[in-house]
Amino acid sequence: MNGKAVMLPGGKYRVVVRKQGAAATTSSGIWVSVLSVVLALLFSGMFIAINGINPVSVFRTMAIGAFGSMNGISETLVKAIPLLLCGLGVSFAYRISIWNIGAEGQFVVGAIAATAVTMYLPGLPHWSYLPLMLIAGAVAGGIWGLMAAVPRTHFQVNELITSLMLNYIALLLLNYVVFGPWKDPQGFNFPGTPVFEAWMQLATIGSGRLHIGLFLGLGAVLLYALIMSRMTWGYKLRLLGANPEAARQSGISVTKQIWLVMLISGGLAGVAGMAEVSGVSHRLMYAISPGYGYTAIIVAWLAKLNPWGLIVSSVLCGAVIVGGYSVQMIGLPSSMSLILQGSILLFLIGGEQLRGYRLQWLRTGGE
């Protein structure tokens, strides 16, 4: 086995910690995700038990709230739609080792741009509004993503910093428009725009709030899977993520690829913002996102950037959010879901570090 060994005293045996190659650890990724969720449940359960509440009853209540009725399932999928689109966006960036944590801001500017279509383009044919809102959301989110990519490629500014700071700018812009020029004068001082007209709203599926934005997310996942598995561009992205220098030597323009990927990454988050205002809230309002862009990071890591895994992880995280509302009935705050999400991310990061190593027990005196 390749890698550096660290010898630890162990009596008759020695414990050898060896660094494994990437190929040796790929198959363990799914187990890291599964164990991270299990450990997060145990870890969160300790905090629940401290409050004198049975953790099992809490998790049962969360599961019933998310999946115990058609309305619960519908609400879980409603939450999963923006998580899937934002998670897919950051997965695109992470594929080439660009750490976009700006999906929250890209989501918000996408929602703002989609709303701007409804505010400033009156009198258009009814059928034209939804396509224009979709395009506006995607373009705005993509530009927001590029604003983090350009400093990275031209000035070596870490995209973690720029994408994070852009989140705050987007949120301040949101506050400005909903408390200021776009505020509904008949909204009883509520910080939000007037409700969209019916033709500006995404159609619903069934009697609940689930809307056709679900198909946007699933279609985007299918396209992502085809790109990464069947297209030459997907091969270039994988090469760039694994070995940027080899990608340069093979003639791939690293700058061009980073720009393009961040444009798509931000654009997908912007589409999520458009789907939220058009399909769920039917207006732009204060705190339009409960943190979808940040939770999308957990979605991407939990799925290991796998397209089909993204569907599962987005539904799981959507269920955690919806289940968090249910636990208020037994005396816990809805922020319980945030503790669970944070715990999952904590154990995912730890697991990613540890899965690159393997323990061996060897007899003293030889290997």
Automatic annotation (TrEMBL):
The chain crosses the membrane at residues 21-50, 77-94, 101-121, 127-148, 160-179, 199-227, 258-278, 284-303, 310-330. Pfam families: BPD_transp_2 (PF02653). GO terms for cellular component: plasma membrane. The keyword Transmembrane helix applies. Keywords: Cell membrane, Membrane, Transmembrane, Transmembrane helix. It is found in: Cell membrane. GO terms for molecular function: transmembrane transporter activity. It is a multi-pass membrane protein. It comes from the Bacteria. Its main location: membrane. This is Inner-membrane translocator.
